Description:
Layout: E1 10-14, E2 24-29, E3 32-45, E4 52-56, H1 68-71, E5 74-75, E6 80-86
Antiparallel strand pairs: 1-6, 2-3, 2-6, 3-4, 4-5
Organism: Mycolicibacterium pulveris
GO molecular function: serine-type endopeptidase activity
Amino acid sequence: xxPTLSPGDGLLGLRCRTPRPGQLRVFRDPTLSSRWLVKRVxxxxxxxxxxxxxxxxxxxxxxxxMDSREFGWVPADGSYRxxxxxxxxxxxx
Length: 93
């Protein structure tokens, strides 16, 4: 499966309440707080600020891919729902 986003793509995220399965979410990497991750929501537990979600990689077979299988479930509070993406324009050289 190809990743949904590629290096250089842009996105717009909005703080939303309860995550829904299939949504893309942006959140701080639980293993390195200076980095942000974009993952697809799997299962969701709870609702609103108390919700947690399973963060899944669209391409889990790629070396170095990490998701909730490595760092556990993610709190919805502090995450953003991806509502718009912009593809990086490639210029032929």
